[in-house]
Amino acid sequence: MRKIEFSKMVASGNDFVLIDRFKTRLPLEKNQISKLAKEVCQRKHSIGADGLLLIEPSKKADFKLRIFNPDGSEVDMCGNGSRCAALYAAQNNIGSRGKKVIETLAGNLFAQVKKEKVKIKMTRPKDIRLRFSLDVDGNTYNVNYINTGVPHVVCFVQSLDKISVGEMGRAIRYHSEFQPQGTNANFVEVLSKGHIKLRTYERGVEEETLACGTGCVASGIITTYDMQNRINTGRHKVRVSTKGGETLSVYFKVIKDKTIDEVFLEGKAKLVYEGKLSK
Q1: Which of 52, 71, 76, 49 is nearest to 204 (CA)?
Q2: Per-residue confidence (pLDDT) for residue 29, from 0 to 100
Q3: According to CATH, what is the number of the domain 3-121+269-278?
Q4: For the chain, which residues score pLDDT lower than 50?
Q5: Do domains 3-121+269-278 and 126-258 have the same CATH topology?
């Protein structure tokens, strides 16, 4: 029986199984890794996690990060997963000593690690659609859409505690409007200017998670648009309180042509434990 070394990492309640392929050999075939992700992410029957992270050598960055959901699907990027990977790389002397460059399917990310706090520069958002009607289970909702490395719908609500995130999130995630890839679904309550509360139904995990990094970024950006779909130029900061209890910070800059750039996500990450998986 083979032993696979792993690390259990957590960022804002998002937990991940991380395997370092600099020192651990694994099958290269994607279908085998997808099968492994399904197995190790099962709660109660295995380690349990919101995703599987693989750190691999890269020719154009400090390391390459591959991200697999519990359903076995590989995604382009993950905000909190990237922060966990950056912390692991810093603790294990992978790559440069300063800012880490992370290769992902969504492009290169840049991370700065200061003790347990990790600030990561995200990819530039795209495909923004503001305030359009969406019919969900016989009701019409005013929603927004943005891709922050992966697709997100952002819906504003009066009280998060009264929302069935599982039921409504699942309906939005599989809505015909967003097929074939589907979407993540975010529900946002505005607490004050520059401070929101967020709950997210994650595609691939197929349930509500305690936090979602790309969802925090998506919701933070959409929140800054006014009722006329305008957004002020300059630098913005939005605090995002998650179900996991931590408040993350989202930073971004709006250029004169309304292009959004220099997007950052900042919060704590930690190593929970290390172990060996029997395969």
Answers
A1: 71
A2: 77
A3: 3.10.310.10
A4: none
A5: yes
